[in-house]
């Protein structure tokens, strides 16, 4: 019954993608759902940006071992990101007639900045998508008894199929349905577990001292440097990403874009806490589950200790989260690949041809992510590296480009290249004591300020928050 129900559920996703394909008439429809989403759909599709493998499997595993301090990055940093986007970025970007995040770099800094930003954005998604595929493979192992590799392939092909057909329209509709199942499933499971434990107070009282501490235990620079790095990895690092851009920009107007992003942030913080406390209750009720992979504590607990109805509801919620996150993440770099890497070098490219290229990009991104998922299967590590990549290379140029009129092309390029280079050296060569992401972000900041300062005569006059006439 569980397998049959999940197969039906997956079939519905494909059918929704097929239905959504009838609404695709141009590139904007495919990438931004025609910019027509009302507040409900816009909030749900933005909420679903990261609610995937890390939230449902990675963060609960970290939480039961280290408490709140081990999950600052996710979900707290992720919720912070959505709120910051709504407050400082959504209204500004909505005024620009652009399809991708990299179009901003073209309008603000020029063609070279557009190309470099695109070349950095596309590979930054491979690790994130790979993490979702690994989680799908794990679900295939737990439920169907499939080899991990086969589960990765099947999950990836399914997501690619309905993303190819309906683009952001299919993502929006399926996200809305997914999130309803997700929220209901998590709430029902949490109520059942805490009823068995005797209530949340009982579970909380059994945890070690400082388990729910929200600030570093040790008052030293090293602890607070790691604490800051945890907050900004996703909190700032995911702001300059195409998936969140296209989800927010799919709203029907600027006010809806702002409100949906802020609402999604608070909704994310609320709902993303549920898997953490579900894992804590599972640890209390079934301590033997800790002897296996802790990422599987919730799936194994559901399979072994709940009736079939709860199993269907939970695994429907889990698969919902994985599908929602991976579909939007696949579409994002595919759009950048077509709009900002291929299009500038092909003269006279029609909108129909561009749409075909973006669909081809969906296939390419899926294939590259499958390869990474097969090679590296640590969900927490894949997600962290993906967010760090965009933070050290793109956050500073984006923010200074919007709010500092002296920022110019030289500063932008120096910021992107220097930030990424320093981070890679610190992360993979020198293995520094302090988090490499801090060195990379500082280098990116210095690159922007010094590069723009020493070439300030070349800086174009630019009014923040105002779209250029060329758009």
Written account of the structure:
Helix content is 76%, strand content 0%. With 471 residues, it is mainly alpha-helical. It has one domain (2-390): Sodium/glucose cotransporter. α5 (72-94) runs antiparallel to α12 (254-285), α7 (111-144) packs across α15 and α16 packs parallel to α18 (436-453). The termini are far apart.
Features:
Sodium/glucose cotransporter, 471 residues, mainly alpha
Query: Biggest β-sheet, characterized?
Result: none
Number of domains: 1
Multimer state: single chain
> Structural class given helices, strands, pairing?
mainly alpha
CATH class identity: Mainly Alpha
Beta-strand fraction estimate: under 5%
Helix content range of the residues, please?
A: over 70%
Question: Can you count the helices?
Answer: 18
Mean pLDDT, rounded to whole units?
Answer: 87
Poorly predicted regions: none
Give Rg in angstroms.
Answer: 22 Å
The assigned CATH architecture is Up-down Bundle
Morphology:
globular
Overview in brief:
By secondary structure, this protein is mainly alpha-helical.
Layout of secondary structure:
Elements lengths: L1 H19 L6 H6 L6 H9 L5 H14 L5 H23 L7 H8 L1 H34 L3 H50 L2 H6 L15 H15 L6 H8 L4 H32 L11 H9 L2 H35 L8 H25 L3 H25 L5 H22 L5 H18 L18
Helix pairs in contact: 1-8, 1-14, 3-8, 3-12, 4-12, 5-10, 5-11, 5-12, 6-7, 7-8, 7-14, 7-15, 7-16, 7-17, 8-12, 8-14, 8-15, 11-14, 14-15, 16-17, 16-18, 17-18
